[in-house]
Amino acid sequence: MSDIAEVLRGLPYFSDLPQGLLDQVCRESESIDVDAETTIIEEDSLSEDMFVIVEGELRVTKQGTDREVVLATLGPGEVVGEIALLDNAPRTASVTTISPSTLIRIPANAFEDLIEDSRVVRRMFRTVTSRLRGIEDTLRHEERMAALGRMAAQLMHELNNPAAAVGRSMARAEEVYVALGDATVLLSGIGELLARPIPVPEKAQFTDPLTRSSLEDGVATWLEELGVGDAWEIAPALVADGWDIELLQETTEGLDSETTTKFMRWLGLRVLASQLINEVRIAAGRISELVRVVKNYSYLDQGPVQLIDPTEGIRDTLILLKHKLRGIETVIDIEPELPTIEASGRDLNQVWTNLRDNASDASDVSGTLTIGAARENGAVVVRVSDTGPGIDPEVQQRIFDPFFTTKDPGQGTGLGLHTVHTLITRIGAEISVDSDSSGTTFTVSFPSAGE
Question: What CATH number does domain 2-116 carry, 3.90.1150.10, 2.40.50.140, 2.60.120.10, 3.90.950.10?
Answer without folding.
Answer: 2.60.120.10
